[in-house]
Design brief:
With 166 residues, this protein is an alpha+beta fold. Helices cover 29% and strands 39% of the residues.
Length: 166
Amino acid sequence: MTDVIPHGTSEIHDGAWLLRYELHLPHPQERVWAAVATPEGLRGWLCAADVLEPRLGGAVTLRWLNAGPEGVHSGHVTAWAPETVAEYSVDLHGRIRFHLESVAPSATVLRFTNEFPGDDALRLDCLAGWHDHFGFLADALSGRPKDWSTWSAGRWQELRAAYAGG
């Protein structure tokens, strides 16, 4: 499934990178919402949500399961509209926004943005990382959540090289 994830784009505004992805997912909006806005759903493709208070201003602590202790990032829920918008602002990763739109009973468009300060190397790391994770999302939505014990950096390195060359 990872080959069907479109490449993300990036631009810089006032010293902060803005990454964008648009995914057309053959799944109902409720299912995609559960994947991006619940601890159970997030664990299957992105990270463990050790804390997730599902409301504007709620606390959030995300622990990337493919990273060591440096993979824990805390912050707040900065936008929350059930079934439509989940936005988390956390240290290092900045503002992470998932915007869902139902386009058919079993089809959802996920518009994702990630805004953060950093250098070009971090931009490339994040583009590759999100792309890799969105492949895991597609798999998880199809009933194959990520087994984090099998994760390796190989696919991420390939994606990073592709983003650096393009």
